Amino acid sequence: MSELRRDPIGGRWVVVQTDNPKKPSDFIQDKDVLTDPAKCPFCPGHESQTPPETLVNRPNGGNANGPGWTLRAVPNKFPALKIEGNIDRQGSGVFDMMNGVGAHEVIIETPDHTKELSQLELPEIEAVISAYKARCLDLRKDKRFKYVLIFKNHGKSAGASLSHPHTQLIALPMIPKNVHEELVGAQHHYEYKDRCIYCDMVRQEEKYEKNMVASNKTYSAYCPYVSRFAFETWIAPRAHFAAFDHIKPDTIPDLVAIMKDVLSKIRVTLNAPAYNFIIHTSPIEDKIREEYHWHIEIMPKLTKVAGFEWGTGFYVNPTPPELAAKYLRGGM
Amino acid sequence: MSELRRDPIGGRWVVVQTDNPKKPSDFIQDKDVLTDPAKCPFCPGHESQTPPETLVNRPNGGNANGPGWTLRAVPNKFPALKIEGNIDRQGSGVFDMMNGVGAHEVIIETPDHTKELSQLELPEIEAVISAYKARCLDLRKDKRFKYVLIFKNHGKSAGASLSHPHTQLIALPMIPKNVHEELVGAQHHYEYKDRCIYCDMVRQEEKYEKNMVASNKTYSAYCPYVSRFAFETWIAPRAHFAAFDHIKPDTIPDLVAIMKDVLSKIRVTLNAPAYNFIIHTSPIEDKIREEYHWHIEIMPKLTKVAGFEWGTGFYVNPTPPELAAKYLRGGM
Predict the structure, then answer these.
(1) What are the structural domains of chain A?
(2) Residue A121 belongs to what H/E stretch?
(3) pLDDT digits (tens, 9 = 90+) for A250-282
(4) Please, which of A13, A170, A317, B100 could form a disulfide with A2 given CB 3.0 to 4.6 Å?
(5) What is the ipTM of this complex?
(6) Partner residue facing B306 (CB), from A13, A100, A158
(7) % helix, strand, coil for chain A, step of 5
(8) Which residues face A232 on adjacent strands?
(9) In chain A, whose CA is at the least distance from the CA of B10?
(10) Would you call B278 and A311 a contact, using CB atoms and an 8 Å cutoff?
(11) B39 touches chain A (CB under 8 A)
(12) A166 in catalytic set
């Protein structure tokens, strides 16, 4: 018998296969081949192949848009949305449309083509997190934007076209549908309970223990009770905190440590899988939301999304989170 | 500049790349290798490898669960949900859970391991559609179920594990999240306009013409203005009709004809791609919805869903529907 579990925020049911659950070795993956560094626009010496830097770490100095950097942020050369222009909203019969205005940047995490984020040293990962924050704070100033999404596609089956370690950042002129749903769901809970639902979930997972992957003073990482995907893992601040880019500098080392730890565990347990991660955070606005709680959702790409998922919005998870967490903790 | 287009039902924005759109030859696909017919549980002579038939066409007679059939429906041997048991709803802290009760069946469309649905003869496709309807009507009688989802995964990257032509059917004890969203969106429009929004959309596409792929007396097929995916194509009744399984027998030949036509066009234009299709229909209930309109959504698997889509619920479509429809009509 499988178990149906319901996410209290979006009302999504997940079918958790508790009979004959899949273990890490049951997932057959197409192994990624590293793209050619000689043709990589993110490798040192190829700086002219990207648009000019919006942020750079060049500890020993050197010219802008030349080598010698340890981290670069650049506009995406093939952006989904472009920074120039007016939004120009208009109707088209029953539909609405606007121009594709937005910012689409790439944060090149390291000059080393062959590494994966978890293989960087702690100070290097700290530089990556600090770059996320700095780019968010800068893009917040543009009044056309309502949301900044930070996400990573690692590996071909997670949608990455380049192997070189990078994260993407998109500033949008509207609040994304998925974020809007989370805000509405969290607001309902807050009105009823006067508490943040994410705080409740983090506390419940910490108390239940079985889904926990790692924890430190400031952050907890767990395979959520309603995981959509096998080995899905969330990292969340243990205390209430609405917006990622308001992260306090003294808590960044704890975030860096837990990210390295969790991504390393995923890498080792699942044989270096493709994965996506997404930073879920508050929209750009003046108020601080009592009801929303930023967090990172890490989704290893082990199964295909197919007709059932497209038709229902529900997911079939072949590895219960209790079991996934046990594997990730190294307990099996 | 790309165009942002908003689906009026779910509020989903799609980024349509109007600059440098992708043409069919730009999509690099992993070619599927046919699974081995000797090991195929859906091939004639292997009937004992599936659970017993729930429906069968055996025009020249023969024993149940033996060869001689032209179409079979059987319970899925590895079901996401199981038919036995009680739902047993309960809370678990902030979460809800219930037992994984449901029906999960497979309709084996033909004894021929190597065919794809569009390659069957018209009477064979008519038998497939009639089997969908018959299984829906039968599962409607089970009072535990609220929705019957019919979907097809064709090809490995669309999630199919077996090549043999088949469709899946899942009866669920709740209304799926995606369907609920469509019902709510359609209800809003109906309250405001006193018209079905799908009727409005079909009429708008027919009038606009550029997105049309095919049409006959009863059905229209088009690449919707807010297509999430390249070459996404919908087939919808031209007149208002809420539930697929109430389809009138005299309109089935028109549906069969347009399905064969559209799936053949996709097969030829896109070099036999993997695809999913989903029949979107009304929940199981006594009332007939004035605001909802059944339709089929066909989604060729040409691109990967990645971090942007997971984070936002929005999609980037590299081929504007106007262009996709032109290719599918054979105009380019």
Answers:
(1) 3-328 (3.30.428.10)
(2) none
(3) 999 999 999 999 999 999 999 999 999 999 999
(4) B100
(5) 0.93
(6) A158
(7) 30, 25, 45
(8) none
(9) A177
(10) yes
(11) no
(12) yes
